[in-house]
Design a protein that fits this description.
The complex is a heterodimer. By secondary structure, chain A is mainly alpha-helical. Chain A contains eight helices and three strands, in the order H-H-E-H-H-E-E-H-H-H-H. A two-stranded antiparallel ribbon of chain A has the order 2-3. Chain A starts with 5 loop residues before the first helix and ends with a helix. Chain B starts with a helix and ends in a 21-residue tail after the last helix. In chain B, helix 7 packs antiparallel against helix 15 (about 345-360). The chains are: A mainly alpha, B alpha+beta.
Amino acid sequence: MTEPGSVEVTSLLHRWTLGDRSALESLMPLVYAELRRLARRSIAAEHPGHTLQTTALVHEAYLKLVRQDRAQWKDRAHFLGVAAQMMRRILIDYARAARTDKRRVMVGAISLDDAHPRAPARPVDFLDLHEALEELRGFDEQKARVVELRFFGGLSVDEASEVLGISTATVKREWNVARAWLAHRLNATDS
Amino acid sequence: MNTQARWEQIDKVVAAALELPAPERDTYVDSVCGAGTPLSTEVRALIRAYEQAGDFLDSVTYRGNASAIEAEAGSFEGRRAGPYRLIRVIGRGGMGMVYLGRRDDEQFEKEVAVKLIDPALYSPSLMRRFQHERRILAGLEHPNIARLLDAGLTSEGIPFIVMEFVAGEPVHEYCRKQDLPVRDRLRLFLKICDAVQFAHRSLVVHRDLKPSNILVTEEGIPKLLDFGIAKMLSPVGTEAEPGTMPLTQAMTPDYASPEQLRGANVNTATDVYSLGVLLFELLAGHRPYVLSGKPLEEIVRVVCEEMPVRLSLAAGKTPLAKELAGDLDHIVAKAIRKDPSERYVSVEHFAADIERYLGGFPVQARRPSVRYTVGKYVRRHKMGFVLAAVALLLGFGSVAAIVRQANIAERERTVAQRRFDQVRQLAHSIIFELHDGVLDTGDAPSQEIPPPSQSRVLPQYQVRPLPPPQRAALVLVDMLGYSVADASAILGVSEGTVKSRCARGRAKLLPYLAHLRSDYPGGRNQAVADGVPSEQGGGG
């Protein structure tokens, strides 16, 4: 069994960044496999109820798959962008598997990127979040994409702006409004 | 206004409001949307939700254990655990998947079993305990214990245990497929006991004895797997809080003792219990309780409160049931008592009782009774008894004399042999009747005793059976060599009664003795044997 070569991943990223769509198709399975492996390990190693650091996983996958001496910052952003989508898909799989077992994947627990801790949020069922996010995508694709990149991919505002080709100010703005809408939507679902 | 346009409006106001400090947001919204308008209400709701959301969307929390992982059996094939390459899945247990592993360096072409511990069982303190325990377990060298060879973490951070690879099948299946007779099953079980006992002396309790942990090789050698692993993997301080669920996923409630299920202290008595359940299963074909599919509370209740069915009853109405009735019933019942203090104090005692059973000695699991003790003695010395009876009846000092006599002359040999056989047959018959007589005086028999048979005896030696009390007295005093005082204690009658019963019994046997002597001239000159009454002196 061979590990996906880091050279391969790096060059695929390059080609994709340069506009080669087929490179992305080759890239996705590699990223998906690695992420899935990492997620499996991470989910399993944690105590029930622990936080799943999705963003940490995505970054780990990056470190693992990409020859960093050859990769550029843009590659990284793009890689993480792909990884975010994959991560979301993996989590949905887990959440569905878990739901049949009457277990749940929940959203919300620990603040990751905030200097001043916020109040811990009431946990939300992951599949509910997924559905809400799809609903949001229905009328505001960009916001859904920002959430995906930042939440599942752990991309910084700068990275997300690079991947989406929008300004950092817009990313922040979209992120804030999307959070407001999702929080409201999920509150409504809950009650 | 269509929804898309409306959303764009909301989006714009919310985004702008969220740029402002929280206290100023409502004022801003009202100024843009007009106070109390539907738009204002909707925007305010989103802002409230945002403000109350705290760290919403900062991370994902996963609740529950990793079923997604368990579903992926075989996903580690081809990967490595330390120096071992994982070849294929050879089993799965509550603890995780077991792989056939092979060392990468050529010089050790040794196959091993690599157990990947389900990471759901993993806890931060586990590794320390893991290291500590593995040192002890590595020292556990016994021919019937699969050796622990190595342990560590895979590069993915999954704890693994490397054990001697045993090619074999679970002990219950082995017994079933080989159709082993009860006594062979017991002998096999004794080897298992020996291994457990050995570990106990090294202060290692198995805690999870069950058929799938006991493999029997083609050569019929049982090998115990996973010694001490259950303890290694149990969370620290499990043995607390009675009534909670202390069972790790690693454990099978089917073989778990009441104290284990209650979360009380687990010690060697726990292994005695599990061995008892195992023996029950090996002999009867199924376990004493039906637990599968029951919720845990129900399992705990059944195991802790319900009386197990008797082994021989569990075997159904089969010839097997007859073999299991009695001693084995008692032995198994003693091993699976609910109160650990009522069980065998050690696996050694358990095994010793089985050996007693196999040797025909009285087992300790049974309350001693005359019927039982004497019955055991008679059965154990069946042949000796026959010969002793011959000697007694003929007045010979020893059986050897008969054999010598039978060998005097070539010419006489055939005749002598035939006569000896006849005498033996008679003695046999008498002994059995005597034996049964003893049985009658004991506690109520648990099974029907076959009536004494006359058919075994040649017509000329037909003996009218003695009344049971006389037979009992004669067997105890003349055959077993009990003193009259002891016999009186055993039978619960006065010494005088014992004496008179013996006397009357002997008197009735005299004619037969006379008959035998005349029939067997070699005995004529022999002195009257000890214990043969004096009133017989002039007979013959």
